[in-house]
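Question: Now follow the chain.
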Amino acid sequence: MMTKKNNLFINREISWLYFNERVLQEAMDKNNPLIERLKFLGIFSNNRDEFFRVRVATIRRMMNMEKSKKDVLSYNPEEILHQILQIVEEQEKNFTQTFFEIKDELARENIIFVNEKELDKKQGKFVQEYFNNEIRPFLFPIMLKNLKNPDALRDGSIYLVVIMKDSRGIQLEDYSLIMLPTDNVPRFIQLPSKAGKHYLIMLDDVLRYSMGEIFGTFGYDTFEAYTIKFTRDAELDIDDDVSKSFLELMQESVKKRKKGVPVRFVYDKDIPDFLLQRLLQRLYIDKSDTLRGGGRYHNFKDFISFPKLGSKKLVYPPMPSLRHKLLPRNSSILNAIREQDIILHYPYQSFQYLVDLLREAAIDPQVRAIKMTFYRAARNSNVMNALINAARNGKNVTVFLEIQARFDEEANIYWVERLSEEGVKIIKTLPGFKVHAKLMLIRRKENGENVYYANISTGNFNESTAKVYADESILTAHPGITQEINTLFHLFEAPYNPPHFKHLLVAPYYLRKNLIKLLNVEIKNARKGKEAWAIIKLNNLVDPKVARKLYQASQEGVKIDLICRGICVLKPGEKGLSENINAISIVDKYLEHSRIFIFANGGDPKYYFGSADWMVRNFDHRFEVICPIYDKKIQKEIHDIIDIQLADNVKARSLKLNPINAYRKTDSEVPVRSQFMIYDYLKEENA
């Protein structure tokens, strides 16, 4: 018997905050190396900024809707915002306490933070020289009284609000804003070591120390500086001007984002009230629930790039990329794929294999064409350079580059223009849809016939993220799969006549329907007393239709193991609703990013993997590909890895409520830390 509709699911925003709490737990975990704990504080902070820019901004928009439109929502936006702010406030307390604990522990490891008031004479001289040589060229103060347009202030950047005084009483007190130039200068400046101790000063404090250098020529000699930061609404509003290309509209929309309405204003709680009120007036911020007083420092996202100092024990032990036994050095990767399907596991194995494949294809005289999709490309992308080289070598290169990828729009627009200049064919972005599928296709002429080689991945073709995102990537020459991927590339150019796919499960065409069919098979088998189970690994589970189907499957006796890193609106392990659903989340050194789905299928399991989370947007508003895995050896390897993750009793958290995020205990007395065990497993398999 199902519970009332309103009690079926956890609100997605609240579930996301639960996920970010798991990131914070990694910072709080004293078993983790100290510098890694600092980095998790940075990831937590960066995640939260994006949450406010996108999700909280959306909720605020909903709050301003007409009542008739609000009534169709499944929740009250005012109530959810209130819950969000309560949870964020509680998390902030844990965050601050954790930071000071880590700081104290680092001091015991001879890594010492000092502020501008704690510098000795030698350090002070170093800071002054560093300021003049490295920082000063990037400073452009704005006098507060001259600030006419608050849109000139950058979203997410740190500003110091400076009170300038003249102790002689000649100059009147004045106020200025200075942006910390973190794009050009590190946030953490290493001071000269002494007596075996490492000293660090934050960029904020270097500026505080150097105020006389900035404003002394104007007659000021006494200064106070307070940190502020505001987060803007980052949702893009795209005009419908038919005279402009979609690329032009996106470029204009990205520019407008920089002028979005502030959704969060964070300030140093010690700032004088009169100055705070003057700032709020100048910035046109009047909503009290947008404001939050905090400490002296903000933008902890910079801790992601904290320098490696001190003992090796302060960071994770190195895990060098593992070789793949089927891809020996200086041998043809295309020949290897022709022999059998090959799976790569990033970051345990190197992304360089893919770059090498593209380089081989670029100079192979029999390769005629290369096609790829991109969602997020690396800033200095070797993949892009390989494609450009292929075009220069006379290959027909076609790229679909999703310029609507949130926060990567500018980088992707740059690559669209660069690739176009080099003669690469660009498939136009589809307004209203995003292409999220990760696909590569190589066409080669062999014995007069076109032969296709494909790569399907759960992660982006991005060498930077491939070092920290745990993804699966399969290389195949399977004729059915490769032909359907070729068809899909044609479909990107004319998406209005979808063909029938025999192998691939494709969104926005029938992906949700096909997944529900697979679950229905398990339900029928459970009713017949047959083996019935499903293993689902993904990042986010939000779609209510498939979530309800999972509830039904549980109630019919289907055993479901769910590994969900991020948002999970489903309530697992609840009597009468979901007692056959076991749900965990793994947060560790690498970001779990792969989507893998295994169904018992009456004793002949079906294996799938791909790019799609189970969310409305993935099913209905994105081109996604879920690909079957036919190779028995790869099926076994995938299942072995999933079994290791299901046995995790170190970094796995239970998604059961009351309490959510409790570290999961198993019957095993042996600690199982899945990411480290997977590394060892793959090392042994490829020995």
User: Anything to note?
Assistant: Confidence is low (pLDDT under 50) at residues 235-259. The domain at 333-493 is CATH 3.30.870.10 (Endonuclease; Chain A).
